[in-house]
């Protein structure tokens, strides 16, 4: 698959999951693509106590980690209700740190002013990441 085909496929998977899991009202889904071509999907963990909620992408990240595969792409899509447009959400700072486990080259879907589907490497999203203070071999013990 080309890079554009991968990105469009991920978007289609996220939209399909939102439409299935959340037929009415708000909905959000994430897709994480692994180096071996597998895709893992997830939704936000809902709870009455908002302090224990997790980001939409976390379930997919945990699945990739469980199967010990390297993530190459991550995308989060939401809509406000069943009549609203789908929107790409850039990963929050915590999810950027979680994805960084697989390295600065992981591509993430980002929010754009025109709503276009766009992916950038984490290294571009975080050009001054704290890991630059350490040699690569030292960071390898954390899974990369």
Automatic annotation (TrEMBL):
Q: Which GO terms describe its molecular function?
A: cytidine deaminase activity
Write down the EC number.
Answer: 3.5.4.5
Q: Which SUPFAM superfamilies match?
A: Cytidine deaminase-like
What highest taxon heads this organism's lineage? Bacteria
KW Aminoacyl-tRNA synthetase (keyword) present: no
Q: Which Gene3D superfamilies match?
A: Cytidine Deaminase, domain 2 (3.40.140.10)
Q: Does the keyword Transmembrane helix apply?
A: no
- What are the entry keywords? Hydrolase
Question: Entry's InterPro entries?
Answer: Cytidine_deaminase-like
Enzyme class at the top of the EC tree: hydrolase
The identity of this protein, by name, is: Cytidine deaminase
Q: Which organism is it from?
A: Ruthenibacterium lactatiformans
């Amino acid at each position: 698959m080309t890079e554009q085909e991968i990105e469009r496929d991920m978007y289609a998977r996220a939209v399909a999951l939102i439409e299935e899991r959340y037929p009415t009202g708000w909905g959000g889904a994430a897709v994480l693509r692994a180096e071996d071509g597998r895709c893992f999907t997830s939704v936000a963990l809902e709870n009455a106590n908002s302090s224990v909620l997790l980001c939409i992408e976390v379930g997919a990240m945990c699945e990739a980690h469980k199967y010990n595969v390297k993530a190459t792409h991550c995308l989060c899509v939401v809509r406000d209700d069943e009549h609203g447009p789908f929107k790409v959400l850039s990963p929050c700072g915590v999810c950027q740190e979680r994805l960084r486990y697989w390295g600065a080259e992981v591509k993430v879907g980002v929010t754009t002013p025109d709503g276009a589907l766009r992916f950038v490497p984490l290294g571009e999203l975080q050009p001054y990441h704290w890991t630059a203070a350490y040699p690569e071999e030292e960071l390898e013990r954390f899974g990369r």
